[in-house]
Structure formats: C-alpha cells, structure tokens
# Entry
Amino acid sequence: MSSAQCASEYCNQGWSEVLTHMSPYGYASFGVAFGLGLSVIGAAWGIWLTGSSLVGAAIKAPRIRSKNLISVIFCEATAIYGVIMAIILTNKIKAPETSGYYLEDGWDYNGYYYAGYGMFSAGLSVGLTNIASGISVGIAGSSCAIADAQDSSLFVKILIVEIFASALGIFGIIVGIIQSNACEFPTFAISNNYNN
# Structure
C-alpha cells in the first residue's frame, strides 16, 4: 500500500475516530477546562455589560456607584461556581495505582469511559449554564444601574430580578455535582490475570 493510499484511508476515518479513541482522562480534563473557562467568560461578559452601564449612568447620578457594585459581585459569582466545579472534578481524576497494565485483562474500560464522559458533560453543563447566568445577570445589572439613576425606588425591585438570574448558575452547579457524583476512575484491576 502506498503512502498516498494510507493518507487517504486515514483522512476518510474522520472526526469520529478522533472522538472515540481519545483518552477518558482527556475527556475529564476537557470537562474541567470547559467548566472553568466558560464560567469565566460568562462572568467577564456580565461584568462588561453591567460595568459599562454603571459608569455611564453614574455620570447623571453619582450616588449609584457604590450601591450598584452588587451587580458586579453577582456576575463574579458565576466565575466562582466554575472554580468550585473545577476543584471538584480535578479531585476525581485519579491515576491507576498499578501502572503498566492498561492493556491486560481485568481493567474496567467501561468505568474509565463512563467517568471521562460524565466529567466532560458535568463541566460542559456548568460552563454553558454559567455563560447564560453571567449574561442574564449582566443585562439585569445594566438595567438596574440605569433605572436606579432615574428613580432610586426601582433599585430593590430590579435587584430581585437580578437575584433570580444569578440562581441559574446555582442550578447549573447543582446539576454538575449530581452528574459528577458517579464519576470515579477505576484505580485497580478487577482481577489479577495480568500476573499469570
């Protein structure tokens, strides 16, 4: 077989081969990365939306500057949820206690992939939820700053809406913890067939 035929055969396998032959530890690590990275993006986006409106509205009413910083704190909470989930997932990634026997009988390969896929989905769930939470808190915080600059009696009413938007991130981390509870990497072989 020529090298051109080998290359074309390799190209025809496509992304499905890459995704099905990736290490479960790789999936788990991507789950940690997506959970943390997307949460930070959501927090930054929310702070950007809130901060720009807060600074603009503070020109008309300087009294809102310190009071409306609570909106920025709510946005920052989404990043903290991502950090918490990343710590939980990272503590679940454990290497096998017996090294060098990955290809021998007795290893629970389904357990590895179950843990890897579960941690990937948990991280992705938390990350995507925190993007939505960060943006919604940012929009509500932006409205809160503008409304407070116009009429100070509206601050508490819009702050309640902002609290509900922040609850989305809490729901996301609860779902992520539930998803990751059953994700345990096997640390030893089921049987000792590799010694025979």
The chain has one domain: 23-93+110-186. The CA atoms of residues 122 and 176 lie 4 Å apart.
